[in-house]
Amino acid sequence: MLGIFSRLSVSSRVSKVGGSINEVCSNLQSIRFATKKAGGSSKNGRDSAGRRLGVKKYGGEYVTPGHIIIRQRGQKYHHGENTMMGRDHTIFSVVEGWVKFTYNPIKKYQVVSVAFENPNIPRKIREPIELESVVEQAKVVV
């Protein structure tokens, strides 16, 4: 006699055992299948790639219009002068210049702006040199 867990098809059961289809179908209803997933797989094996967020141009670096300065989620940094914020909170430059970070102690957040002068160079060196005074000094030396 065939067991309950036999792998024979319905037509072969009817031919070997004999009887009606209803009897065979009643035997098939008692077959049990696995209720647990087979071993060797895990439920937590997925991960997504990193989003590459953070500061892309640091303070004192030279930027041109369109350069991304910061990519962020939310407004950890706020945009200041000569910068704009995209719809995904990316801060980018609008003009050529040097990146400058300042802190607003009242509202407690950092402001990113682009300055026309490099903030890392001391003011004395940054001031323009008058050409006439250099020529006069050269004549005195000679």
Describe the 3D structure.
The chain is α+β, with helices and mostly antiparallel strands. The chain has 4 helices and 8 strands; from the N terminus they run ααββββββββαα. It has helices at residues 10-17, 21-28, 123-126, 131-141, and strands spanning 54-55, 62-63, 68-71, 77-79, 83-85, 91-93, 97-104, 109-115. The strands form 2 sheets. A 4-stranded antiparallel sheet has the order 1-3-6-5, with no helix packed on it. Strand 7 and strand 8 (109-115) form a beta hairpin. The longest helix has 11 residues, at 131-141. It is rod-shaped. The mean pLDDT is 79.
Shape designation: rod-shaped
Task: Give the SSE order as H and E letters.
Answer: HHEEEEEEEEHH
Alpha carbon gap, first and last residue: 124 Å
Strand content: 15-25%
Radius of gyration using CA atoms only: 38 Å
**How many runs of DSSP E, i.e. beta strands?**
8
What characterizes the major β-sheet?
A: 4 strands, antiparallel
Tally of helical runs: 4
| Classification by helices and strands | alpha+beta
Spatial arrangement of strands, main beta sheet: 1-3-6-5
Q: Give the helix level as a range of percent.
A: 10-25%
**Poorly predicted sequence stretches spanning 5 or more consecutive residues:** none
Overall pLDDT level: 79
